[in-house]
Design brief:
- Helix content is about 15%, strand content about 40%.
- The chain is built from seven helices and 38 strands.
- The longest helix has about 30 residues.
- The two termini are about 40 Å apart.
- The relative contact order is 0.15.
């Protein structure tokens, strides 16, 4: 404060600067850390999404709503413990992937711990909330409750484990409006809780002294079958349902009769929750930060079976995909008529850098096409999804030569399989690419040409949308580090001229470049960067070492890697596509539940925030346990009056700081809503007490 006061008193003529202010002229920025050991970035993004989009909001809302959790108040400590493990992976050398191999092996285990805790707590919380949703119906048919963790309503694909009707027939999902949705069946299976074979002498028949409820699941019915000297006893359980006493008594009597003559030598006991179908379906209009229930209704007929074929094109009502002979594809935006040819072109170059910086090879061999003609099959063609599978092989140099000035003449095959998917009602192309990396000292990127000529591109940053130039400074000979053409991003990057635009969303792939091309502009998304040293002092892009000059063979990332990203064409404004990018980063989840009345309606939002430029980034329990934190930010430059509505009327809502220090109370109207101003790009945090 004293320094600022002295500067103001001196009244100097100061230059106003805006922007990121991240020039490497005087100090190295080490931008290659965004792509070093990419598996770390992918796992970290998955863990952050799990905790912030699912575990924190689900447990906090479930506790306030009074959902049956079965954790005896332990959810908050478990969530904090998951965060501790994740933060232990966040020291800058760790999360940047620029340490010795052993450090990153230990990170892998911590990521496992985060996922184990987060998934368990999330599943318990979602099951508790699903038990509160009104799914009662005259046919007493079970339901699937689909949850949406993003701010806006959406229609999107969801994977679900659906209880199969008793008669074994096919089924559809029925909305509260009576609309039927046909699922795409992946497999049918039985969810087994416990299975054991015991001698008859060790078997204790069911009696009134044995509880008829196991782990919160009531026994529903018995099925008996005798094979020679073995009694097969099949016991059906139902989660969250009371036991069927009449069926239990009948079953006990049948078991006693079967064992009465003494000829049974063994009992094969199977406790299970019934038959389930693992399926996907497009859940329409699921409210933002909310849920929607779908009834499971038996129907006659068999599900559509997906058979592979040689088709090279797929489409939905928004988009058309045609795979070309070189393994790339052409995307047609049916809404605007725009064609995007040459998409998903993989480009491999040499990398003589280290974990801190990418460094190009002086005499390089750029590989931008597969050897031979790619194989294209229609891997899925069902009511939920159409998927083209493109299999191809790249031949790349095995490694750098000893001088590190060029890549070796030896060629190594990189098998690559890309799956390109479209779903009805979803204006987005979902892509999953698997690479078996067998080569060292290289960088693999995937390119997306956009038919526009521009000088800047946009990326999502931390509570910001950042516009960056395509070009870099050229008079940089005396700079400590040469400016990198790659840039960091969060969920997406996009190129647009105001009329035509293409957004590339990603899951845990934080490095992107926009470059000038013959037919316009290209976005290049880094998939993999393989290096063998923690730090090198012989690079053209940086002066001297950035760390210890130690070998790091595991930073070559040899093995199988899968990368998930999506394409969202739009009419020129990134805000038209950003919701789809957020949806891609956090897929819907589904929980099956029996038919039952509930305090929650069949469809609703737990928190509604408007207008549309406001995006919720956190819903969590307050650190002091006093209430529910809701945090959002204004993605636009325009100031708005934000409206926040909760699923039940709070007793008190206050504006607070990021550190959760209360600033002022807010007025609550009759609907339970509050209003608060949100300046352009402002982060707003509220705490609601119930």
């Amino acid at each position: 404060p004293q320094f600022v006061e002295a500067v103001r008193a001196a009244g100097p003529s100061l230059e106003l600067r805006r922007g990121e202010m991240c020039s490497p002229e005087r100090a190295p920025l080490l931008p290659g850390v965004f792509s070093a050991r990419m598996w770390i970035k992918q796992r970290n993004a998955a863990c952050e999404t799990l905790l912030t989009r699912w575990t924190e909001p689900v447990t906090a809302i479930a506790e306030i709503a009074g959902a049956p959790l079965g954790l005896q108040g332990r959810s908050a400590p478990l969530v904090k413990q998951a965060w501790r493990y994740l933060l232990q992976n966040h020291p800058h050398d760790s999360i940047c992937g620029c340490s010795v191999d052993q450090v990153h092996k230990e990170m892998d285990v911590r990521f496992d711990w985060v996922e184990q805790i987060g998934e368990m707590v999330t599943t318990v919380g979602l099951s508790g909330l699903a038990a509160m949703v009104d799914t009662a119906n005259e046919q007493n048919q079970p339901a699937v409750v689909v949850f949406n963790p993003t701010t806006r309503p959406r229609s999107d694909v969801v994977s679900a484990k659906v209880p199969v009707p008793d008669n074994g027939s096919h089924f559809v999902l029925v909305t509260d409006q009576g609309e039927s949705i046909q699922p795409q069946i992946a497999e049918r299976s039985r969810e087994v809780m416990w299975e054991v074979v015991v001698p008859t002498a060790q078997f204790t028949p069911m009696s009134n002294e044995v509880p008829h409820e196991i782990n919160g699941a009531g026994i529903q019915e018995f099925s008996l079958e005798v094979e020679d000297t073995v009694l097969n006893l099949d016991i059906l359980l139902a989660k969250g349902q009371p036991p069927n006493v009449d069926n239990i008594k009948r079953g006990e009597a049948e078991v006693a009769n079967a064992l009465e003559d003494g000829e049974i030598e063994q009992v094969h006991l199977l406790l299970h929750y019934g038959d389930y179908a693992q399926c996907t379906f497009v859940a329409p209009d699921v409210p933002g930060l909310g849920y929607r229930a779908f009834r499971v209704q038996p129907v006659d007929g068999l599900p559509d079976q997906t058979e592979k074929s040689e088709s090279t094109s797929i489409e939905n009502e928004f988009l058309h995909i045609q795979v070309d002979e070189d393994g790339t594809f052409t995307l047609t935006d049916r809404m605007t008529g725009t064609l995007y040819p040459g998409l998903n072109r993989l480009v491999d170059v040499g990398d003589r850098g280290d974990e801190y910086n990418f460094c190009p090879v002086e005499q390089d061999s750029v590989i931008s096409a597969p050897v031979g003609e790619p194989s294209v099959t229609l891997a899925e063609r069902g009511p939920t999804r159409q998927t083209l599978e493109v299999s191809m092989t790249y031949q790349v140099p095995a490694s750098l030569v000893e001088s590190r000035s060029e890549r070796s003449d030896e060629r190594i095959e990189l098998p690559i399989v890309t799956r390109i998917s479209l779903s009805p009602g979803v204006r987005r192309v979902d892509i999953s690419t698997t690479v078996e990396n067998r080569a060292a000292d290289h960088r693999l990127r995937v390119h997306f040409p956009v038919p526009v000529n521009v000088d800047t591109f946009d990326v999502e940053g931390h509570f910001d949308v950042i516009t960056r130039p395509l070009d870099v400074p050229t008079d940089t000979e005396k700079w400590v580090e040469q400016p990198a053409r790659t840039h960091p991003q969060c969920a997406w990057a996009q190129v647009s001229d105001g009329k035509i635009g293409l957004m590339v969303a990603n899951r845990g792939l934080p490095e992107v470049e926009a470059l000038r091309a013959d037919q316009g502009t290209e976005l290049a998304l880094t998939l993999l960067r393989s290096v063998g040293w923690l730090s090198r002092a012989d690079m053209s892009v940086r002066r001297g070492h950035a760390g210890p000059g130690l070998p790091t063979p595991e930073a070559q990332c040899i093995g199988d890697h899968t990368f998930d990203y999506a394409l969202i064409p739009h009419g020129g404004a990134w805000m038209d596509a950003a919701d789809q990018a957020q949806a891609f980063s956090a897929p819907l989840r589904a929980i099956s539940t029996p038919a039952h009345p509930g305090a929650l309606s069949s469809k609703g939002s737990f928190v509604e925030v408007g207008p549309e430029s406001l995006i919720v980034t956190a819903i969590k329990e307050a650190e002091d346990g006093s209430g529910l934190i809701v945090r959002f930010w204004n993605t636009s430059e325009t100031a708005y009056e934000a409206t926040v509505k909760f699923w039940q009327k709070p007793a008190k809502v206050s504006l607070c700081t990021l550190g959760e220090r209360v600033l002022e109370p807010l007025g609550i109207d009759a609907t339970g809503s509050v209003t608060v101003p949100a300046r352009g790009r402002e982060i707003v945090t509220l705490v609601a007490e119930f």
